[in-house]
Specification:
single chain, 223 residues, 9 helices, elongated
Length: 223
């Protein structure tokens, strides 16, 4: 039997010059996003514009526009970039902890740490919610989706802690998550806006009080 010979030509490899250009373009976009994230942390998502970012990066407006196409797409890209950073610093390290109460505690500890490091720059989840809470559109939708994804992950961690027997069977994950989120909002407000001393310790003490109401005798040590 004669071997079958393919008559389909092998796909052409991209030219090295084209690959280098694409790589450079991606590096430029990443640099613009980093500058945009810093600008949004200081001035809010509404403070972002193609012109302002061109001034910060030293690029032309057309150069910035070529990477995003519109102010709206720039804002959405910044939200996604912030979310990726949040996942890397908070979510992914926390889920390496054992499921149940240890994972829930790790999520909160890393969340508090993230907020404490953003006191000078601000949390885009929180500031963005204030800017876009009554402004429907793609930017609000993108921000709400990212925040909702984190809240869903927090509720899943609470549910797993209940399944593991670390939290009472009648503990409502939505209620526990609401109380925990309230502590984060209070921390951000008091530490960033009021510059109140001791806000970080109060946030941690508040979390302990929440857990005291819900943990079971079978729960592993958490303090």
């Amino acid at each position: 039997m004669n071997p079958t010979v393919s008559t389909t030509a092998a796909p052409a490899r991209p030219a090295r010059g084209a690959a280098r250009t694409a790589h450079k373009g991606q590096q430029t976009r990443t640099s613009i996003l980093e500058a945009a994230l810093a600008l949004a942390s200081q001035k809010g998502l509404e403070g972002l514009s193609i012109g302002a970012l061109a001034d910060v990066t030293g690029m032309s407006k057309s150069g910035v526009f070529a990477h995003f196409g519109s102010r709206e797409e720039l804002q959405i890209s910044v939200i996604r970039e912030y979310h990726h950073g949040f996942e890397s610093e908070v979510f992914f390290p926390a889920i390496r902890a054992p499921r149940g109460l240890p994972r829930l505690v790790a999520m909160y500890d890393r969340w508090v740490q993230r907020v404490s490091e953003e006191l000078d720059s601000g949390c885009i989840y929180i500031s963005g919610a204030t800017e876009f809470d009554d402004r429907p559109g793609p930017v609000r939708d993108a921000l709400a989706a990212m925040v909702q994804a984190w809240h869903d992950a927090l509720r899943r961690a609470i549910e797993l802690a209940r399944v593991e027997g670390h939290l009472r069977s009648d503990a409502d994950p939505a209620q526990v998550a609401f109380e925990v989120h309230g502590l984060i909002l209070a921390l951000h407000h008091d530490a960033r806006f009021l510059r109140a001393t001791g806000a970080l310790e109060r946030a941690r003490t508040g979390f302990e009080h929440v857990l005291e109401r819900y943990v079971t005798p079978e729960a592993p040590p958490w303090r």
